[in-house]
Amino acid sequence: MEGNDIEELWAMWDLWLPVTQELSFQKFIEQSDLLEELKYDFNEKAELRHTETQRPFVFNYYKNVLERNSKRYQALGHLLAQYIYELLEKVCKLQKVYIPPEADKEPRSFFFMSERALTSHHSVLLVLLQDHGVFRAGQWSQQAIIHHGLQHGSQIPCIQMALQAHYDVIVLNPNDNFVDLKMEKEWKELLTQNIGSSSLKMVQAENFFSLQQPLQCIPKRCSNTPEEHMAYIWDYFISKTEGKDVAFIVHGYGGLVFMDLLVRRKWEVMNKVYAVALIDSEHHVGHQLGSDVQLLAWIKHHCREWVTSPKPLDKPAATVLKKEFPIVSAGTEKHNLAPSSSLQSIFKYFKRALKAKTTINFSRVPIVTRSSTKRKQSA
After folding, report:
1. What is the extent of the structural domain holding 69?
2. Is the N end or the C end of the chain the one with fewer CB atoms within 10 Å?
3. Which GO terms of the molecular function aspect are on file (predicted)?
């Protein structure tokens, strides 16, 4: 995909934006019992605005009552996660895949992937791995979605660019690690459709906002942690793809998770992944990779990082602490805006890296040298 193509796709954001009543966020809220507290929808610029005042989201809805305002913000975040899941399926045409597949009678996590991600050959597979936090699949930052819009906080522009460039896509869900039974019960009551009594809705909402019960968390098998989630999807999905070149975009803690995968699945990752775009990453090469010469050589040639910086986009921004591979500015000083700010540059990097990709494969077989040959002959 050429630079101009990326810019055109970025400018055409509003063409895919679900402004129809069927996919509007407001209709999503109307199905819950929180319509009065959350009168918000996304406008034609994909910005979250109050449906009556057209003003941005206001946290202090209940005047100076922190706990109730935090509960309201939590409810908004939960609804946003469900809404973006729907956009991934209905707008981006991705498939929702539960893991582990056989565990249909216990709490389990899931991720999203394009229809031919595991079957089509000789195409690029792009894997998206976000930072740690409350946000789920399809989100770079919940805060950025709320305050800056879907085009900055969601992964949908990135997914659209990838699909437009004929990439296949896997969207990970690394923060979906457990289910809280008490909160699940509250969500189900709040999201019940077609409740006739408005007074009942008000009572249910009040109960939710005043909820002070202890958590009852059950871990999700194969997804207890972001690292376990990543390793499982690598082992049972990504590693099974044939004839594919794999690229990663990782943000924040996602960089640490990727380096963990690289250490655990060293030879597989080095042979299959051709490029990694790290964004303001929390990895630590010294602690995670140690002095492994092969791993250090691999990241030097296959990784590039975009970091928050006052410098213009793509200007060198290496520091004394980080110099293992090329590091450039993300074009912003805000961590939660770094993915959207650097996105066009990342896709250009992927194109160059794929074009320059060598055919050399890493192998466990040691390289034969003259000295080793002499030792073998004299034995």
Report:
1. 10-91
2. C
3. siRNA binding
